[in-house]
Amino acid sequence: MTFILAFRNLFHDRVRLAVTLIGILFAIVLIAVQLGLYLGARQIIASTIDHAKGDIWIMAYGNKNFEEAQPINQRARFVALSTPGVAAVIPMITSFVDWKKPDGGTATIVLVGADPEDGGLVPWDLVDGDIAALGARDAVIIDKTYLEDLGASGLGSTAQINGSRVRVVGLTDGIRSFTTTPFVFTTFSRARSLLGLGPDQITYGLVQLAPSANPDAVRAALQERLPSEQVLTKAEFRNRSLNHWMMSTGAGVALIGGAILGLIVGTVIVAQTLYSSTKDHLNEFATLRALGSSTGYIHKVILSQAALSAAIGYGLGMTIALLIIYVTESMALPLPIVMTPGLAALLFGLTLFMCAISAIAAISKVTRIDPAMVFSR
After folding, report:
1. Backbone phi, then psi, for 314, in 5-degree steps?
2. What Å distances lie between residue 315 and 22, 28, 165, 309, CA to CA?
3. Looking at 118-132, 219-233, 243-257, 294-308, which range is the least confident one?
């Protein structure tokens, strides 16, 4: 009976119901897009670190993220190799550099140099070409998202880095950069040559541990033996990169702020319509009170209205949000919108919370009803 009464109250005024659903729908779509962008940004920022096969990173002090790396002496690698618990230390080079397009113009890229056979950081999600082709003297691999930005047409396209010719031998799908600066993968020695680094210079030492080694203990030992370099676990470096790009730049705060704004706006709209609906049915609620219905029962009716609104609005909002995500994926935008089961569940919980909070004003109005008013009509 509670559900039936709530259903009839909700659908009695179709215009008011439409306004309520639009408010919920707006909030859900805005929150889904903002939080989806937040998750997508985090995924992109951490992607290279997550795919790197290493437990500990050796780097220059002050290095805040994967892309902006400063050279260190390769001596650190050999010191690390002699540390108990260390199985291998893979040298890697990462640096911003200019890419000269074949038809003129330049673009800034992030050159990543690592030997595939070392297994440190290998381009993933390859959709065209072969990793083994990086063995050619001028070979590079890029992501197909940035073909137009780099003036490339596909496999076999050529360009120049610091005056040296390079040729695209492979294409990946989905290796993107938060700064929209394309990643270009090549071998370690070729990257060092293209950047003009000395034979004793690297930017990262990617430490792989022995099976029984304790990461924290090895990291502490490495830091003690390498006072001129900084030693971080994979998780520490990942969190540092995320904090730099998402918090220090304000990007993450802006995205979360947009989601909170959507929640507030949706709550206000739903609260107004629920309050108005309750006010229009005061006589009916007073009749229920006069017939002996408890305050709790009436509260259940109002909360049921809110729950029904939440369920319908969530369904419509998620449908539109998923459509937006599908369209953005087909457009291969540099910053994807990510939807996970956890985020979908969170959105449903927020919708229920939003509607429940919105019902408070209506419940407050009903609580003050005098059952005697029904006899004064």
Report:
1. -65, -45
2. 12, 9, 53, 10
3. 294-308
Whose tokens are 């003036």? That residue is: 151
CA distance 220 to 185: 31
Most distant CA pair in the chain, distance: 96
- Which of the two residues, 13 and 305, has the higher pLDDT score? 305
C-beta of residue 228 within 8 angstroms of C-beta of residue 70: no
Contacts 24+ apart (CB under 8 A), 240-244: 240/64, 240/65, 241/45, 241/46, 241/49, 241/64, 241/65, 241/66, 242/42, 242/45, 242/46, 244/64, 244/65
Which residue bears the tokens 């989905």? 174
Burial status of residue 377 (CB atoms within 10 A of its CB: 0-12, 13-18, 19 or more): exposed
In DSSP notation, 31-68 reads HHHHHHHHHHHHHHHHHHHHHS--SEEEE-TT--SSSS
Q: pLDDT, tens digit, for every residue of 286-305? A: 666 666 666 677 677 777 87
Tell me the C-alpha distance between 226 and 208, whole Å. 17
Q: Are 170 and 131 in contact (CB under 8 A)?
A: yes
Q: Which token pair is 302?
A: 């109002």
CB neighbour list of residue 32: distance below 8 Å, 6 or more residues apart: 317, 318, 321, 337, 339, 343, 347
CB atoms within 10 A of CB 194: 23
pLDDT bin (cut points 50, 70, 90) of residue 1 is low
Element at 190 (helix H, strand E)? helix 188-195
Based on its alpha-carbon atoms, the radius of gyration of the chain, rounded to whole angstroms, reads: 29
Residue 202: which region, alpha, beta or left (left: phi > 0; alpha: psi -120 to 50)? beta
Output the CA torsion sign for 325, 330, 335, 339: positive
Q: What sign results for the dihedral spanned by CA atoms 304, 309, 310, 315?
A: positive
Q: Which alpha helices (H) appear in 113-168, and where do they start and end?
A: none
Q: Kindly report the pTM of this predicted structure.
A: 0.79
Residue 363 sits at the vertex; the CA angle it makes with 359 and 366, to the nearest 5 degrees, is: 145
